Amino acid sequence: MDSRTKKLTSLAVLASGAIILSYIESLLPPIVSGLPGVKMGLCNVVIIFALFRFGLSSAAAVSGVRLAALALLFGNTLTFLYSFVGATLSLAGMCLLKKTNAFSMVGVSVAGGVLHNFGQILTAILLTNTLEIGYYFAVLAISGTVSGIFIGLLGALVLKQLKNVKI
Amino acid sequence: MAEAGSKKKMFRDILLIAALLAVSFSALLLFSAFAEDGEYVSVIINGAETERYPLNVDARVVIKAEADSGGENVLVIENGKARIESADCPDLVCARHAEISKNGESIVCLPHRLVIKIVTNEKSEVDVSL
Question: Model's pTM, two decimal places?
Answer without folding.
Answer: 0.85
